[in-house]
Amino acid sequence: MESRISKRVGAIAPSATLAVTSKAKELKAAGAPVIGFGAGEPDFPTPLYIVEAAVSACSDPVNHRYSPAGGLPDLKEAIAAKTLRDSGLEVSPNQVVVTNGGKHAVYNCMQVILNAGDEVLLPAPYWTTYPEPIALAGATTTVLPTTEETGFRVTVDQLNASLTERTKALIFVSPSNPTGAVYPKEEIEAIGQWALENNVWIFADEIYEHLVYGSNVHYSLPSLVPECADQTVILNGVAKTYAMTGWRVGWIVAPEDVAKASSTLQSHQTSNVANVSQQAALAAVSGTLDAVDEMRSAFDNRRQVMYSMLSEIDGVSVLEPQGAFYAFPNFSGCLNREIAGKRVETTLNLAELFLEEIHVAVVPGEAFGAPGYARLSFALGDNDLKEGLERIADLLNG
């Protein structure tokens, strides 16, 4: 019998990261001592000054009404100012569209720019959501594999090899989810020049811009290659930087015609983002980065612990994360053998085994286009982090 669900929606794969987190929460609610490395969100509460701004906004009747679909004017101005402060990129408020979280920003971006038959270059490992809105826009994804050996960074040679007359855009993410890779300045400049020469759009995901460690530095591509600004869409939001995943505020910064089209699209999708959340976001982007610095310091300590402990497990190799809050270890050396009496051939099998045998949740690399690897978030408490990694080590070394 023909499915009652439309083909375009029926083809969407569920979010693997949310599925792992949901399963871990179910087991934990049932009493299992589950430790979850799957969540892509800070474990800190939203800073108090942001919460207080939201509480105050609740009492103001102006926030009880509809507001402009593309975002509160004050917030758009503040995002433009923040973009100049953090990225060295001067933009106008008319280039900003406030969205219902980062995923909404991604969806709108794809809908506004892509046409049926277009091709989008997507370096792997990639965030699980990207291929789905590309497909919903009628475009196709061209995956460009990267590995530990390349630092999980795509090269201009790879871009050239994958370029066709249908290539419309490149998704560029630094710092990276899921690998934690951060592109150095000279590589970003080279990729920007390549895009300029080949008339390829850049969809630049900068959601982890403030979460970089050691000597690594985040650079916004259009600030390094200003000529690219007219063919670049920046995707960002408050979720990771300010521990505001549940507030659902993201944005795009784009050329004015793209921003206008995105705002028009949103006027028929959702209308405005919740005004209280927008007021909270206004406080966040207008404030200092002191709370962010504290979180980054804690993440840095956990990063080093995770890297050290993973490096000591037999059959596991891992690059030291440079940004975001994930490690992306290679478990290939643990596959094609029996572990705890069960045959393990893929990282899907391994992730299932971890959850069943030692109650540890990780996201298998298959979800990111990288079989053999797995993503482990270090955005969780120090004790849980160490305990979870000890369980993994005991199982694999046993």
What this model shows, in words?
The protein is of the alpha/beta class and about 400 residues long. It folds into two domains: about 150 residues, Aspartate Aminotransferase, domain 1 (Alpha-Beta Complex), CATH 3.90.1150.10; about 240 residues, 3-Layer(aba) Sandwich (Aspartate Aminotransferase, domain 2), CATH 3.40.640. It is built from 14 helices and 14 strands. Strands 2-8-7-6-5-3-4 form a seven-stranded mixed β-sheet, sandwiched between helices. Helix 3 runs antiparallel to helix 11, helix 5 crosses helix 10 and helix 12 runs parallel beside helix 14. The longest helix has 22 residues. The protein is globular and about 60 Å long. The model has no long low-confidence stretch (mean pLDDT about 95).
**CATH T-level topology of the largest domain:** Aspartate Aminotransferase, domain 2
Q: Calculate the terminal CA-CA distance, rounded to whole Å.
A: 49 Å
Number of domains: 2
Q: Architecture of the largest domain, according to CATH?
A: 3-Layer(aba) Sandwich
Structural class: alpha/beta
CATH class of the largest domain: Alpha Beta
Mean pLDDT: 95
Shape by Cα distribution? globular
Q: How much strand content do the residues show? A: 5-15%
The tally of helices reads 14
Instruction: From the alpha carbons, calculate the radius of gyration and give it in angstroms.
Output: 21 Å
The named CATH superfamily of the largest domain: Type I PLP-dependent aspartate aminotransferase-like (Major domain)
Main-sheet strand order equals: 2-8-7-6-5-3-4
Would you report the number of β strands?
14
Into which percent range does the helicity of residues fall? 40-55%
What is the succession of H and E elements? HHEHHEHEHEHEHEHEEHHHEEEHEEEH
Spans of 5+ residues with little confidence (pLDDT < 50)? Answer: none
Largest sheet: number of strands, sense, barrel closure: 7 strands, mixed
